[in-house]
Design brief:
The complex is a heterodimer of chains A (138) and B (148).
Chain A (H helix, E strand, L loop, with lengths): L1 H19 L4 H8 L8 H20 L21 H17 L3 H6 L6 H24 L1
Chain B lengths: L5 H19 L7 H6 L11 H19 L16 H21 L4 H8 L5 H24 L3
Helix pairs in contact in B: 5-6
Classes of the chains: A mainly alpha (138), B mainly alpha (148).
Chain lengths: 138, 148
């Protein structure tokens, strides 16, 4: 059952991204570009997403267990540390340069563009580099 | 503002929120970088099947969109009109930064933005403000260098 839900959630998520405009780096950059011609559309994506999750998560997380599953797998850290901010800053720089964040990048593989594939491979390499660095450090 | 699409973007956002809710109803956070990172060592191999299925669905949803009548002609993957050589370079640098940054900072637009803010996490609020601000500065710098 969990596997069916994971697939269904992914399908909905990918469809939502395509509908929302997030699959177009030009649209993403237009949203981030307050100086040279701002397109605020993507604020509505986050607004729509949060309108659902803020309410639904509130009620879901009141339950002792998920509806389909034995436990919630949630982040446990609550401290604001350097890693959080540095990581977000690196991610933001990459997002502005490429116009792609992880969800839309993977979702866009649907349209078989070699440029998207190059971005996704670089992203996976970036994940592996960061994981290796932090394993060496810990 | 000719590209302004509030209705489509809001509808897409609502669907994304429903997708994240569905996954949380099964106990998991719909953060794409987290789901991807969990496929790589040192994450346990037994935990991988649902991640592959979610990511397969993520691609499948984008495949279905035009089949169900959606318009994908709006997609423009080269916002700065870079030459091909420069664009490939930008995508490699951008991809590396996105992969490293989301791993170091424990999440991206979906994990911190939709799910983390959805459960009112202070860490996610700091993350979202930081990556939005830095991304805005990056776009401003590139657009300025490219001549506006």
């Amino acid at each position: 059952m969990f596997l069916v839900i994971a697939l269904a959630s992914g399908l909905l998520f990918g469809y939502g991204l395509a509908l929302s405009g997030m699959l177009s780096p030009a649209k993403v950059v237009g949203f981030l570009d307050v100086a040279y011609g701002w397109d605020p559309s993507l604020a509505f994506v986050m607004g729509g997403g949060l309108a659902v999750t803020v309410v639904a998560f509130h009620f879901l997380l009141k339950r002792p267990h998920p509806i389909f599953g034995d436990k919630f797998y949630l982040p446990t850290r609550t401290d604001i540390d350097k890693r959080l901010v540095i990581g977000a800053a690196l991610f933001g720089a990459g997002w502005g340069i490429g116009g792609l964040c992880p969800g839309p990048a993977i979702s866009s593989l649907a349209y078989a563009s070699p440029k998207i594939a190059v971005f996704v491979v670089a992203m996976v390499v970036g994940v592996l580099i960061a994981k290796t660095l932090f394993r060496a450090k810990n | 503002m000719e590209n302004f699409t509030p209705f489509l973007s809001l509808s897409g956002g609502l669907i994304i929120g429903i997708a994240a809710t569905l996954l949380l109803a099964a106990g998991r956070i719909a953060g794409i970088s987290g789901i991807l990172g969990g496929l790589m060592p040192p994450a346990p191999a037994a935990d991988r099947k649902w991640r592959w299925l979610f990511l397969l669905g993520l691609i499948g949803g984008a495949v279905l969109f035009p089949i169900l009548g959606g318009d994908i002609s709006y997609i423009d993957i080269n916002p700065y009109n870079f030459s091909d050589e420069v664009h490939y370079g930008a995508l490699i640098i951008g991809g590396l930064l996105v992969g490293m940054g989301t791993t170091i900072g424990s999440g991206c637009t979906s994990g911190h933005g939709i799910c983390g803010l959805g459960r009112l996490s202070a860490r996610s609020l700091v993350s979202v403000c930081t990556f939005m601000a830095v991304a805005g500065v990056a776009v401003f710098v590139i657009r300025t260098v490219m001549g506006g």
